[in-house]
Specification:
74% of the residues lie in helices and 0% in strands. With 476 residues, it is mostly helical. The protein has a domain of 187 residues: Serine Threonine Protein Phosphatase 5, Tetratricopeptide repeat, CATH 1.25.40.
Length: 476
C-alpha cells in the first residue's frame, strides 16, 4: 500500500499537473492549427499580459506566428517572396530574442524550461531558414541542452522529445558547410534516433501534438518521400484540425498520387479544396469539362500557386481540350506550355491512339477496378515500342498498381523496366518503390546491394536516406 501511495505522489505532477494543456491552451492550439491565426494570437497576447513570469504564452504566440508566416510567404508574388521572407524572418527572430532575454532559466520550473527551450528551437529554425547557420546551430544546441535537462528532471515529459527528434533527424541530413558547422558545435545527427524520438512525442506528448504531426508529415512526405507513411499522419492531423486548408490540400495531392480517389470523392466539394487540386482530381477521373474549368480558375491567381502547379494546370487544359476536340482552348494555352510539357504533348499527338488508350486505362485504375480487370485491359495494350515515353509511363503505372495490390514480384519487374527510361523522374520513382519492395519482402542480398550501388550512382539525397532502411534490414 505504501508503494502504491508513493507511486501516486510521484505521478500526480506529471499526470494531473501542468503538462496538460488547460482550456485556454486548447483554444489557442485549436485556433492555431485550424489556421484561425488572429484568434490564436489575440488569446495568446491576452494571456501574456496576465502571466508575465512565464514563457508559456510567448511560446504559443510564436508557434502561431510561424505557421502564419508560412501562409503569408505563399501569398506573396514570386518576385517579392525573397524580400518578404527576409522581413518576416527578421520580425520573428527579433521577437524570439527579446522574449528569451526576459527569462532566467535557473529560475524556471520544469514546465517553463520546456517552453523556453522550445522558443530557442523556434529561433534556431528561423535562423536556418534565414541562412544564419552558426546562429541556428547555437540556438539549437541551447534548446537541446534544455530539453535534456527537462527529461532528466522528468523522464515522462514526452513533449521534450519533439525538439530532440528534430535536431537528431535534421542534423543527419546536413552536408557541406552546414554539416561542418553542426559538427563543430557537437550537433551530431542520427536519423533513426530522430524518428524514434519524434514517434515518442507523437504518441505520448500532450502539448505538441500539432507541431509533432506536422513535422512527421514534412519528413515523410518531403524529405523521405514516403507517401504511404505520411498519409496516416495527415489523416490524424486533419481529424483533429479539419479547417487547416494548407494541410488538407497537400493531403489531397498525396491521395491523387496514390490513386486513392474513393477518399477524395468525399472531400472534393469542400470549400477548403483549392481549384488546382480539383483540376487534378477531375483530370485523373476523366471529367475533362470540370478539369478545364478548375484549371483555368486556378490560373486566375497564378502567382499564388506552388512551383510547378501553374505549368501543370496549363497542361491539364491543353490535354483535355485536345481530348474533347476543344481546339480553341487548346490553342489558347498550348503556346504557354514549358518545354517539358510541350515534349509530352507532341508525343501524345504523334501517337494519338496509344495515348488515348493509356489515358482510358489510367481512368479505369482511378475508378478502383480490380487488378484482374486491369490485367485484362492491359492484355489489349497497343504496341508502344515506337513511343518509348508512353511505354515507360505504362510500366510505372503497372508497377504502382501491383505494388498497391501487394503483388510485389510483378511490381518489381515493371519498376525494373522503368529504370531504362532516360527521364530522371521515372528513374527516381522506380528506385523509390524498389526500396520499398525490398523492405516489404525479403530478397537476395546481392540484389539489394546492386540496388544500393545504383542509388549511390544516381546521387539523390532522398533516395540515399530511404535506402538506409535497406542497409539496416540486410545488414549491409
Amino acid at each position: 500500500m505504501k508503494k502504491l501511495i508513493s507511486f501516486f505522489l510521484l505521478s500526480t505532477f506529471v499526470i494531473a499537473g501542468p503538462y496538460e494543456p488547460n482550456n485556454i491552451d486548447k483554444q489557442i492550439i485549436n485556433h492555431t492549427f485550424n489556421e484561425e491565426f488572429d484568434r490564436a494570437i489575440k488569446l495568446s497576447q491576452d494571456q501574456i499580459k496576465t502571466n508575465t513570469g512565464s514563457p508559456k504564452y510567448y511560446y504559443y504566440y510564436i508557434n502561431t506566428k510561424i505557421l502564419e508566416y508560412y501562409q503569408k510567404v505563399t501569398e506573396l508574388d514570386p518576385d517579392k517572396r525573397e524580400a518578404g521572407r527576409k522581413a518576416l524572418n527578421k520580425e520573428i527572430i527579433n521577437y524570439c530574442e527579446n522574449v528569451l532575454n526576459k527569462f532566467d532559466k535557473s529560475k524556471l520550473d520544469t514546465e517553463n524550461k520546456f517552453y523556453l527551450g522550445s522558443i530557442y528551437a523556434y529561433l534556431g529554425r528561423i535562423n536556418g531558414i534565414d541562412g544564419s547557420w552558426w546562429s541556428a546551430f547555437r540556438n539549437g544546441q541551447k534548446s537541446r541542452n534544455i530539453m535534456e535537462e527537462v527529461l532528466k528532471a522528468d523522464p515522462q515529459f514526452y513533449d521534450a522529445y519533439l525538439v530532440l527528434g528534430m535536431l537528431y533527424y535534421y542534423a543527419d541530413r546536413l552536408s557541406g558547410v552546414t554539416g561542418f558547422i553542426a559538427g563543430v558545435l557537437g550537433m551530431s545527427g542520427d536519423r533513426n534516433k530522430g524518428l524514434e524520438y519524434l514517434r515518442i512525442a507523437y504518441e505520448k506528448g500532450k502539448l505538441t501534438y500539432g507541431q509533432t504531426t506536422l513535422t512527421l508529415i514534412e519528413i515523410y512526405s518531403s524529405l523521405e518521400d514516403n507517401d504511404y507513411e505520411a498519409i496516416k499522419f495527415y489523416e490524424d492531423f486533419l481529424d483533429r484540425y479539419p479547417k487547416n486548408k494548407r494541410t488538407l490540400n497537400a493531403y489531397c495531392q498525396r491521395l491523387i498520387g496514390l490513386y486513392e480517389f474513393s477518399k477524395l470523392a468525399s472531400l472534393i466539394n469542400s470549400e477548403l479544396i483549392e481549384d488546382y487540386t480539383k483540376a487534378r482530381y477531375y483530370d485523373a477521373i476523366g471529367n475533362s469539362e470540370l478539369a478545364i474549368k478548375f484549371a483555368e480558375s486556378s490560373l486566375k491567381n497564378e502567382k499564388s500557386l506552388w512551383r510547378g502547379a501553374a505549368g501543370n494546370a496549363k497542361y491539364i487544359i491543353v490535354f483535355n481540350g485536345w481530348l474533347t476536340g476543344n481546339t480553341s482552348i487548346q490553342k489558347k494555352y498550348e503556346p504557354e506550355l514549358d518545354e517539358r510539357y510541350k515534349e509530352i504533348f507532341e508525343t501524345l499527338k504523334n501517337f494519338e491512339n496509344e495515348s488515348r488508350w493509356l489515358y482510358q486505362f489510367s481512368i479505369q485504375a482511378a475508378a478502383g477496378k480490380s487488378i484482374t480487370d486491369l490485367e485484362n485491359l492491359a492484355a489489349n495494350k497497343p504496341d508502344t515500342r515506337k513511343a518509348p515515353e508512353l511505354e515507360y509511363r505504362f510500366n510505372l503505372l503497372m508497377g504502382f498498381l501491383y505494388y498497391k495490390n501487394n503483388i510485389l514480384n510483378k511490381s518489381e519487374s515493371f519498376y525494373r523496366r522503368s529504370l531504362n527510361s532516360p527521364n530522371e523522374r521515372d528513374k527516381y520513382t522506380a528506385y523509390k518503390y524498389l526500396v520499398d519492395i525490398y523492405l516489404k519482402q525479403s530478397t537476395e542480398k546481392s540484389k539489394v546491394k546492386k540496388l544500393l550501388d545504383e542509388i549511390d550512382d544516381f546521387d539523390n539525397d532522398r533516395l540515399t536516406f530511404r535506402s538506409k532502411e535497406l542497409e539496416k534490414k540486410y545488414n549491409l
